[in-house]
Amino acid sequence: MSNISRTLSAALFIVFLMGVSIPAVEAAGANEAAPVFVRLKTEPGEMLGVFYPELAPHHVQSFIHLVRSGFFTGTKFHRIVPGFVIQGGDPLSKDMDPRNDGTGGPKLSDVLSGDDAQLLKDFNAMLNARGYVEVDSEALLKAEFSKTVKHIRGTLSMARGRPVDSAGSQFFVCVANAPALDGQYTAFGYVFKGMETADIIVGAEKNPAAGRDAPAIPVVILSAEIIEGVDGLSDDEKAAWDLVPANLRNVK
Fold this sequence. Notes:
Layout: H1 3-18, E1 36-42, E2 45-51, H2 57-68, E3 76-77, E4 79-81, E5 85-88, H3 108-111, H4 114-129, E6 155-158, E7 171-174, E8 187-193, H5 195-202, E9 219-228, H6 235-242
Antiparallel strand pairs: 1-2, 1-9, 2-8, 3-9, 4-5, 5-7, 6-7, 6-8
Helix pairs in contact: 1-4
């Protein structure tokens, strides 16, 4: 192995050893941690979900980081399957070409922050100085499958490719119970308010020319927001949260 290969391998190893410096969701201790919510705004309406940090900590942390960085704003729900799911979160869906929707995801530079982001910049500066192409590869999450959690109507789960450890930013919301997905995809939250918005999205007209499940006019995520604790919810949202069964509030 050449010196540059050893340097490259060592540097990348350090990046991943250090982990991703993203806002962590505190695990429940003696006092249960306050719930963390995500609010997705679209033209048809809003959807409000709660995260499951004890079930899928890395997926939750990554999703929160991407939301806070504005990554999802302008992305579209590019896949609609009635009786099954709506899927979004692909950065490539921001362009006007629906044919590439469903093929994109975040890069390392999208998910790293703080010292880790600087380490990547310094590493790329070193590569560039030596005549090598800079590194900014796909940021893929390891699967956090559950043997017990079911994909039901409202489940917020992560899309992936054929390899199990290939989730990035694309996510889906189940509009109906989907037992075939159990243990095969990482569920990391639950949409408890605004499922009527999901029903509108999934019921839209399709565009077969762009793909079997592509909508004719994809719904855009106008904004995504993280809310820490119940106090950040509106009265209507608090009322909806109060109706969520205990077994769907903080799944482990």
